[in-house]
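Morning!

As promised:
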Amino acid sequence: MPLINIKITKDGVSPEKKEELIQGATQLMVDVLGKNPASTFVIIDEVETDNWGIGGESVTQRRKQGS
Amino acid sequence: MPLINIKITKDGVSPEKKEELIQGATQLMVDVLGKNPASTFVIIDEVETDNWGIGGESVTQRRKQGS
Amino acid sequence: MPLINIKITKDGVSPEKKEELIQGATQLMVDVLGKNPASTFVIIDEVETDNWGIGGESVTQRRKQGS
Amino acid sequence: MPLINIKITKDGVSPEKKEELIQGATQLMVDVLGKNPASTFVIIDEVETDNWGIGGESVTQRRKQGS
Amino acid sequence: MPLINIKITKDGVSPEKKEELIQGATQLMVDVLGKNPASTFVIIDEVETDNWGIGGESVTQRRKQGS
Amino acid sequence: MPLINIKITKDGVSPEKKEELIQGATQLMVDVLGKNPASTFVIIDEVETDNWGIGGESVTQRRKQGS
């Protein structure tokens, strides 16, 4: 029954990469906790870089500054 | 003061259906817990089928396979 | 596949009331959206009244003041 | 290491306002808890007014009625 | 900058297993998306079985019935 | 109507500090976005250090190592 939520910046991640994230996160629940993959949910949220802040500024700003 | 978050796949749910979800979830808090509807929040998140995984694969893939 | 998260203040809600919340929220997904109950998750979070704020003060404070 | 998630209705908040939210929320963690801003995350979610309910109806409906 | 939230039922998962979850989820972000592990957060939530519902009943009930 | 969720490690934050977090986060919504404080919710989640990972290890481990 695990539920995994992955939040990443919205950077055009391909559907194939998303499948890999879903597979990998599900397998982790099987390998570490012996969970049933059939009832494991993975939800990926893609967040605009304007909407994600670190160190007091948005990722948009940080990337402009090369940090 | 309850807060209900409903996550569903993004499948073109109409505004009318969303009103029904909001009404129903709010009423549930009133009926079961005696909460004040005026301070009950409901937030609906619609998730792309590429971004929702079950059983190690995305809903997009599952639907292609008819599962 | 819906996922419903219900956040309420921690006020000693009984297991029976929690069953009612789980049943009601699941049934809402069936009735409004035609979802499969077997793959509907409900997660209830109980939040300490010190940790929930409204109007700039905690629920603990509000209750002391009878508001 | 704090993580702040801010959910607001989607009303065309400007990137500048978002920077202010990120700065302010991060500074709050520094001022109140002495946290390191470099490892403080802020994520802003903008929610469609159809998808946010209060008092049993959506914000879209409430605004139509001037409430 | 990814953020991974893992929700599992509260079943006495050991600190060692939690380390494995944290390592595995972080490594997944590195392997699939080339993310920097230093700024990858993992948060594990353990949910009481009374508070997690599937198929319209709590995990507590389901386990009693052997389902 | 904003909703602010603050996640911090569980380190015995006092009720007074929590009031300051609630006040400050609410005021930020008023100052930056002109929101109504009466309908602003703040929820604080305190996360065990075993359950919060950064850089592939738990905060518990990082603190042992003085990192």
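Chain A has one domain: 3-64.

Hope this helps with the figure draft.
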